[in-house]
Design brief:
Elements (H helix, E strand, L loop, with lengths): L4 H21 L5 H16 L10 H22 L9 H11 L7 H13 L3 H12 L4 H8 L3 H22 L1
Length: about 170
């Protein structure tokens, strides 16, 4: 990467702002909190001194976001806020974000994931896309595809497990 740090951060946020906000909205109650967290990620990215060593800028961005979320959860625990650390969604995103640095090129992973998603049953595809690409809640997904929120959770768990298994086979 030969672009200056400020330009890199601007480009990253221009291309990933919506996804970053959707990521945070899944874990916070107020939309303004999601915007505040995204702004904090932006500021932290601006503080990175040696951006040339970042091999996967998008992955790094979401690693910073996941770490910020971990910090927020720890602070909430210290101040007595209720947190469900066993929540599958939180575990999934934090586990994925922590592995970003050691993984293969982002574009290859995206291509492989698209292949894997195409192999899922229709409802599994729909639930994954609505949850992770559009940031919808279980209730919103259930209303859209006319199933119960409980079934949304089951489809998500099964689809994620299938994706992980098939992604591992492709590596």
């Amino acid at each position: 990467m030969s672009e200056p740090a400020n330009q890199l951060v601007e480009r990253l946020f221009a291309g990933n702002r919506t996804a970053l906000l959707a990521f945070f909205r899944r874990f916070v109650r107020e939309p303004s909190d999601a915007r505040d967290l995204a702004q904090e990620v932006y500021l932290r990215m601006l503080r990175v001194r040696d951006t040339e060593k970042i091999q996967n800028p998008e992955g790094y961005l979401f690693t910073v976001a996941a770490n910020l979320l971990k910090e927020r959860r720890a602070m909430e625990r210290r101040h007595g806020s209720e947190v469900d650390a066993a929540d599958e969604e939180i575990q999934f995103f934090l586990a994925e974000a922590s592995n970003v640095d050691g993984e293969i090129d982002h574009a290859v992973r995206v291509r492989r994931l698209r292949e894997v998603l195409k192999q899922l049953p229709a409802k599994g595809q729909a639930v994954i896309m609505l949850q992770y690409m559009h940031g919808l809640s279980h209730k919103e997904i259930a209303e859209r595809i006319e199933i119960s929120p409980r079934m949304v959770k089951k489809y998500l768990a099964k689809s994620i497990a299938l994706c992980r298994l098939r992604m591992a086979r492709l590596q």
